[in-house]
Amino acid sequence: MPNMSMTKVPMPEQDPNVRNKNFEEVSLGYTEEMAVEEAERCLNCKHKPCVTGCPVTVRIPEFIEKVAAKDFEAAYEIITSTNGLPAVCGRVCPQESQCESKCVRGIKGEPVAIGRLERFVADYHRAHSNDKATKVESNGIKVAVVGAGPSGLTCAADLAKLGYEVTIFEAFHKAGGVLVYGIPEFRLPKSIVQNEVDNLTNLGVEIKTDMVIGRVLSIDEIMEMGYKAVFIGSGAGLPSFMGIEGEALVGVYSANEYLTRVNLMKAYLEEYDTPIIKSKSVAVVGGGNVAMDAARTAIRLGAEHVHLIYRRGMEELPARAEEVHHAMEEGIEFHTLCNPVKILGDEDGRAQKIECLKMELGEPDASGRRRPVPVEGSNFTIDADTVIMSIGTSPNPLLRTTTEGLEANKWGCLVVNEETLETTRKNVYAGGDAVTGAATVILAMGAGKQAAEHIHKRLSE
């Protein structure tokens, strides 16, 4: 008999006034009893609408049925038949707008907590199983993957399982892409990412770090080394700025740089001498998940005031509701319907204040959201000796400018065939943020799977 509770089993969390001073994981995860209780809320619908909302088509009702039966290892096998990063997805996927948005239980109450259950299963397996992925028999065909982020890791894993000799070329000194440099430790512990990377190397995938493709090697040179296909999953790491006065002042960061210094370069650990300004008053410009990550990181680095400035209203914030909720609990100060116009500095060229203009919402723009319109004469300033710009990113032009025949659109995103993800260069494929611009981890993973499927079809001809 299903559990007909209208609400999800709550997820245990650290107290907000404790967690905003440490980098330990905020959400503590379900116990076995909690997971079983939540799994029993699933109706195991005949048409499985939740699966249609998953970019990697996890067999959701099947794995949840195994959780309800306390067969957690069987649940893990079901999830990983289509999703190679379950511990990651269970933590950072926007389930509320994907699988959970399709859940029938959400019509008259809260949907089943699919993401929490996926996380539980992955964590249970990691804690209780010593099984390791093993390399399958090689088919002798070499494939290169550019970028060790979510799309690249997924593509590499799927191809390795089919017998391909896969090499990943990663620009940073550590594999994981945005999972290690972008998402903070308190949302996604790096030990979990490393575990997923280790699973990949156990499959026989070779990972070469410090390899900036377009500088160290070109795509053409990779092909000349005997690789029959290349998948580009290099992400969208080029930050955007507003072009306002004062952006060149000391103390003004892009969110990418700020989070990379903290996450990848370990600025939050005392034993690491990572250069970063730890100020008392921080302003973060933007309203997405990256903005929330930057704001919540700043308060953990000791800021007394962290101001989040967003030009639309609270209802229009693009960040996940959970991240906004956590940020508010942790003391982040929200300034909505405001837009920066200038950053003011001292005589030494250091940021001191950010000047903003109040906004009001006008007619909808091309995105369907109401366009923010400035309120003349409403200027005000906020004290901030660190300003973090989190207004979007785009793909780095290095690859497309060093590879003949690799076309991009006006936003700098690679042009691909929508079905196969092949670029305008034969046997060169691309997916994830390099194609879509900044998006979600799970959408990047879906692109990695899609590309792997079509690379296999091409190389099997």
Describe the structure.
- By secondary structure, the chain is an alpha/beta fold.
- The protein contains 17 helices and 16 strands.
- It has helices spanning 16-19, 32-39, 49-52, 60-68, 72-80, 86-92, 114-128, 150-161, 178-181, 190-202, 219-224, 255-263, 289-300, 321-329, 398-401, 433-436, 441-459, and strands at residues 142-146, 165-169, 206-208, 227-232, 238-239, 252-254, 281-285, 305-310, 333-336, 338-345, 351-364, 370-374, 380-383, 386-389, 393-394, 428-430.
- The strands form 4 sheets. The chain has a 5-stranded parallel β-sheet with strand order 3-2-1-4-16. A 5-stranded parallel β-sheet has the order 6-14-7-8-9.
- Helix 8 runs parallel beside helix 17.
- The radius of gyration is 23 Å and the shape is globular.
- The N and C termini lie far apart (50 Å).
- The model has no long low-confidence stretch (mean pLDDT 94).
Question: Secondary structure elements and their pairing?
Answer:
Blueprint: H1 16-19, H2 32-39, H3 49-52, H4 60-68, H5 72-80, H6 86-92, H7 114-128, E1 142-146, H8 150-161, E2 165-169, H9 178-181, H10 190-202, E3 206-208, H11 219-224, E4 227-232, E5 238-239, E6 252-254, H12 255-263, E7 281-285, H13 289-300, E8 305-310, H14 321-329, E9 333-336, E10 338-345, E11 351-364, E12 370-374, E13 380-383, E14 386-389, E15 393-394, H15 398-401, E16 428-430, H16 433-436, H17 441-459
Parallel strand pairs: 1-2, 1-4, 2-3, 4-16, 6-14, 7-8, 7-14, 8-9
Antiparallel strand pairs: 5-15, 10-11, 11-12, 11-13
